Amino acid sequence: MTNLTNYRILAISLLAISLLAISLLVPVYVNSVNAQQVTINGAGATFPFPLIDTWRVEYKNVNPDVNLNYASIGSGGGIKQFTEKTVDFGATDAPLSTTEFQKAGDPVHIPETIGSVVLAYNLPELTTPLKLTGPVIADIYLGKIAKWDDPKIKELNPDVALPSEDIISVHRSDGSGTTFVFADYLSKVSSEWFDRIGVGKSVQWPSGLGAPGNEGVAASIQGSPYSIGYIELAYALTTQMNFASIQNKEGNFITPSINSTMDAVSAAAATLPKGPEPWTNVTLTDRSGPNSYPISSFSYLLLYKDLSTNPTIDEQKAKALVGFIDWAITDGQKFAEPLGYVPLPQAVVDLNNETLRSLTFNGNPILSN
């Protein structure tokens, strides 16, 4: 009788433990079922794609219910889709022009990272790094310097055995913020470029080969001996391409790097506009400073000041989108430098935080102040 009683007590105890375990597990199961997945769609610049794609993966560890899709289609395409409200955010390396800003309605610029545009080249015989100046680069793209052993290039590189081969210049074929940055720089260092070609996300190239995206230009350079092209530093580093040191405003030849790009940004940080204001005239090219690399640029995310302006965004998505960007401009910056991007200076992070806290949905703040 005693053994039977003990068995009953043991059975009841096991049942109680099982019920307790189930009661503890049920809320977790219910929460996982009830948690709503949010998908955020963006499109635009190829320049920040490696960083944004890293954020896409890493943010799942922060908020597993948020999925990020980003189409690397070029700044021109990103601005178009943002303005047409077919994506939740746009991305561009060129700030919105006055016309684009007015057409968009009520946009804000949020600098997400900083990078530099480099002149990558494919010279099989060359073992010594190449030096170039802005005017020489402009003349190459204008078609005025056609050979690698041109006297103007030899003068800058007296100890380099330059081949007597035709220069194949490669440029972007799509509407590109990288092109905007490159053309902006050339317009400052070459009056002929300014007069004949000017600045834009797309320009009329006098010569050379066109390729889509930073990826396409990088691939064209790698596949074409004696070619030269402009790409973002991150792509040059990840593909282990050779790139030139470029003479800056102070007359020094500067190798593009995290530090030399940061030097170019430091002088500009204090003069940046507030997020809702136009950023049309913001430029980091040809900045003063003995160690400043001369072809540097912000890359921007584009949002509407009131996110309900975009019919693809409901309140839940608005909160998820702003939460993601809040993470990207702070904790997410630790992923920038390993990929060849410059982390945002604290002054720019502070400016971005102010912009994010001004964003609304149907007039109500999304983030608490």
What does this structure look like?
Residues 1-34 have low confidence and may be disordered. It is elongated, with a radius of gyration of 26 Å. The strands form 3 sheets. Strands 1, 2, 3, 4, 6, 7, 8, 9 and 12 form a 9-stranded mixed beta sheet that branches. Strands 5-10-11 form a 3-stranded mixed beta sheet. A two-stranded antiparallel sheet has the order 13-14. The chain contains 13 helices and 14 strands. The protein has helices spanning 2-34, 49-62, 75-83, 98-104, 134-142, 151-156, 177-189, 191-196, 213-222, 233-238, 258-266, 315-328, 346-356, and strands spanning 38-44, 66-72, 89-92, 107-122, 131-132, 168-172, 209-211, 227-232, 242-243, 245-247, 253-254, 296-304, 360-361, 364-365. With 369 residues, it is α/β, with parallel strands linked by helices. Strand 13 and strand 14 form a beta hairpin. The longest helix is centred in the N-terminal third of the chain and has 33 residues, at 2-34. The chain has 2 domains: 38-115 and 268-281 and 296-365, D-Maltodextrin-Binding Protein, domain 2 (3-Layer(aba) Sandwich); 117-266, D-Maltodextrin-Binding Protein, domain 2 (3-Layer(aba) Sandwich).
What characteristics describe this protein?
369 residues; alpha/beta; D-Maltodextrin-Binding Protein, domain 2; 2 domains; nine-stranded mixed β-sheet; three-stranded mixed β-sheet; 13 helices; 19% strand; elongated; disordered N terminus
